[in-house]
Design goal:
By secondary structure, this protein is mainly β. The protein has one domain: Methylamine Dehydrogenase, Chain H. Helix content is 1%, strand content 39%. The protein has a six-stranded mixed sheet with strand order 2-30-31-32-33-3, with no helix packed on it. A hairpin with a 3-residue loop joins strand 18 and strand 19. The N terminus is likely disordered.
């Protein structure tokens, strides 16, 4: 297998309360918030230290590995002559950032791959679909950026470039396939919104420039259970969040200009808010009390907002106001960039470039803002494993920061590859996906 699939910021080895005690069943872990219980991941790693294995993978993809039991699932796009995705600055400098590039005249094989967590050996690789792409992607994007979701019954992989949602059982046997349609995205940047999973349901957000909707399907049959159409189409790469808060469980989705919350069982709207900036490149941060969001861009940095759990109805700001109803707090010019916020122990963490900002989750007040030593551009989302915050930059440098009000780096790692995918955790293993390979870091943690 070729080295392109490992780039996914694969911290998927953190144990959690998903399908099993140490599963990482979806983007950003069991609850979609990037927070999992403590795991015995090492505090230091390199190519010669605490690297259990690395597996070269064919094709390309920024999708995060997911873990159920002792099986890793990930997705990839295989095709002759596909370009290697660029890093942040190279992608920004490329002319295709301002104007969509050409659609490659190549047949792409979109695949789902299963690996053994202990050894990294491939168990099976199955094709979900083969086709020529209809629309271009940004030079920093890939054709397999969406992270799959999985449970004890199988894996469910969505490929936005074709609109294909394909299900396979744990042995690789095809279960069902749903074609949701492929649509153009703003400036030809491509797709990237991952599905979410809950109680035998898979949720897919398709926000684009032509036909935007959120759809819920049964994981066993592929039957569509409900669908919500958006009146105005708008591209978003954020991933919908199954928000388990102190009041209820709800499905939250953002197209930037409109944020909606729905009952996951029926699709019935619980609340919506417009007139504020919601996430499009990053995803929501959340804990039991509040939802955190915003979206920085080259055009400006709007407020970082927090909404209290338990709201109902239209939360849009009143005329002449910028504050949505149920707002807990707002901090000007503090929105996250690519990495999604993560909240733990009353603290909210955000990344941007190579900076880490810590805020009080109840008030939004800044506790510290520090440049992380040894790190450059951070594109992957941070994750929290127990009381440790794991940061990974696009050049393979990692920093482990102690959770708390004082900035303290307690561990570090380094691997030679390009990393955009968010790390994953499974058992005591930390998974990091780079352009070249998938890496498993495992060892006795430093005390």
């Amino acid at each position: 297998m070729n080295p392109a699939l490992v780039l996914g910021f694969v911290v998927s080895l953190l144990p959690s309360n998903g399908s099993g005690s140490s599963d990482w069943p979806q983007f950003r872990g069991p609850n979609g918030t990037g927070v999992v219980p403590a795991a015995g991941i090492p505090l230091e790693w390199s190519a010669t230290k605490n690297l259990a294995w690395s597996t070269a993978l064919s094709g390309q993809g920024w999708s995060q590995p997911v873990v159920v039991g002792n099986t890793i699932y990930l997705t990839t796009a295989v095709g002759e002559g596909l370009e290697t995705p660029m890093g942040m600055q190279a992608g920004v400098d490329d002319p295709r950032t301002m104007k969509a590039g050409a659609v490659p005249d190549v047949t792409i094989d979109w695949r789902v791959v299963a690996l053994d967590l202990t050894t990294g050996a491939e168990r099976w690789s199955q094709s979900a679909c083969k086709a020529k792409p209809k629309f271009p992607i940004h030079p920093s994007n890939t054709w397999a950026t969406e992270t799959a979701v999985a449970d004890a019954n199988g894996v469910y992989a969505f490929f936005g470039a074709t609109g294909t949602l394909a299900a396979f059982d744990p042995s690789g046997k095809p279960l069902w396939k749903a074609e949701l349609g492929s649509y153009p995205t703003t400036q030809g940047y491509g797709t990237g919104s991952s599905p979410a999973i809950l109680d035998g349901k898979v949720f897919v957000q398709c926000f684009n420039e032509e036909k935007s909707f959120v759809v819920c399907l049964d994981t066993k049959s592929g039957k569509e259970l409900w669908r919500l159409a958006r009146d105005k189409a708008a591209t978003s790469w954020s991933t919908p969040l199954v928000w388990k808060n102190q009041k209820r469980t709800e499905l939250v989705a953002s197209s930037g200009a409109l944020i909606t919350s729905s009952d996951p069982a029926t699709g019935k709207e619980l609340w919506h808010v417009s007139g504020v900036i919601g996430p499009t490149m990053c995803s929501f941060g959340a804990d039991a009390e509040r939802l955190y969001f915003g979206q920085a861009s080259p055009g400006g940095n709007p407020p970082l907002l927090a909404l209290n759990a338990g709201a109902d109805g239209d939360l849009s700001p009143a005329k002449g106001s910028s504050e949505p109803k149920s707002q807990a707090w707002a901090q000007k010019a503090s929105s996250p960039d690519m990495g999604s916020p993560v909240s733990v122990d009353g603290l909210l963490y955000l990344t941007g470039e190579n900076l880490l900002t810590c805020r009080d989750a109840s008030t939004g007040e800044q506790i510290y803002k520090e440049r992380v030593p040894g790190l450059v551009t951070i594109s992957a989302s941070p994750i929290v494993v127990g009381d440790k915050l794991v940061l990974l930059d696009e050049e393979g440098h990692a920093a482990i920061v102690q959770v708390g009000p004082e900035f303290e780096v307690v561990g570090k790692g380094a691997l030679e590859d390009t990393f955009w995918a968010t790390p994953s955790v499974g058992g005591s293993a930390l998974l990091l996906r780079g352009v070249k390979s998938l890496y498993c870091v495992r060892g006795r943690p430093t005390q």
